[in-house]
């Protein structure tokens, strides 16, 4: 029984290490693809017929450029934490020329401006339906809410950029299942913190392009445990051989 249990643990730990090695290869390939996208020229949005097939692997952080008219009255604020501190993302739907809408994260405002919004919103002076051309990064929806906090559409509280939830709450019948982060972040200045200053608000271009990649640590952990099980099995086997040798003397 002990040998069977040891063999099972060895197989399990070795398999988990192999799985993490495969995940590391996948993650490195994903990072390389995203880096290539970030340096590419902005493309047009995927055709409306392909919106349901949009996914993180093929579209996340894709630079895009769109034209349309702002639906300023349907703007929502979602909680945000950035290098400028705590505050809010300003999400406004953009009605596209060929139909449909796409949510645009126009940028960040500090928490001190929350009570003054939308009076301080530049779109308040432009009026409903103001034309716009937006260049930014295509992002996937963030359903559910934040850490231990769920979105409350009826109360207008949003802890995440939940595209489907916001579209339903704002009556957007033909919204894209993704959103756009306005502005292309300067990767060369990524190590330098942005200055808060006095605006302009909302502040675009604060997208953080970063992937958690600890798979190599997990590989060594699981394979290390497998090696420990194998080493323990060798010690037990040697101990049993010595006992048998003594028994037969």
From TrEMBL:
Q: Per the UniProt record, which residue ranges are transmembrane?
A: 216-239
GO cellular component, as recorded: plasma membrane
Topological relation to the membrane, as annotated: Multi-pass membrane protein
The protein, known as:
SURF1-like protein
What family does the entry list? Belongs to the SURF1 family.
Primary location group: membrane
Organism, by scientific name, is Pulveribacter suum
- Cell location: Cell membrane; Membrane
Keywords linked to the UniProt accession: Cell membrane, Membrane, Transmembrane, Transmembrane helix
> InterPro entries recorded for this chain?
Surf1/Shy1, Surf1/Surf4
Pfam families tied to this protein: SURF1
Concerning CDD domains, the annotation shows:
SURF1
Does this UniProt record's set of keywords contain Membrane?
yes
């Amino acid at each position: 029984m002990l040998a069977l249990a040891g063999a099972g643990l060895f197989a399990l730990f070795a398999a988990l290490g192999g799985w993490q090695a495969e995940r590391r290869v996948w993650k490195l390939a994903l990072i390389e693809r995203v880096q290539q996208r970030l340096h590419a020229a902005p493309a047009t949005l995927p055709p409306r017929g392909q919106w349901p097939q949009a996914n993180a692997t093929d579209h996340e952080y894709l630079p895009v450029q769109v034209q349309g008219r702002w639906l300023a009255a349907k703007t929502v604020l979602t909680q945000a934490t950035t290098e400028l501190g705590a505050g809010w993302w300003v999400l406004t739907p953009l009605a596209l020329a060929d139909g449909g809408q796409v949510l645009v994260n126009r940028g960040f405002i500090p928490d001190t401006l929350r009570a003054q919004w939308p009076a301080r919103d530049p779109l308040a002076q432009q009026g409903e339906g103001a034309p716009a051309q937006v260049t930014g990064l295509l992002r996937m929806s963030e359903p559910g809410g934040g850490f231990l906090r769920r979105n409350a559409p009826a109360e207008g509280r949003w802890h995440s950029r939940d595209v489907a939830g916001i579209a339903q709450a704002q009556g957007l019948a033909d919204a894209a299942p993704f959103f756009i982060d306005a502005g292309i972040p300067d990767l060369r200045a990524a190590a330098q913190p942005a200055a808060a200053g006095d605006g302009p608000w909302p502040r675009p271009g604060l997208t953080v392009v970063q992937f958690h990649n600890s798979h190599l640590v997990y590989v060594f952990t699981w394979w290390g445990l497998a090696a420990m099980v194998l080493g323990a099995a060798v010690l037990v086997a040697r101990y049993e051989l010595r006992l048998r040798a003594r028994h037969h003397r």
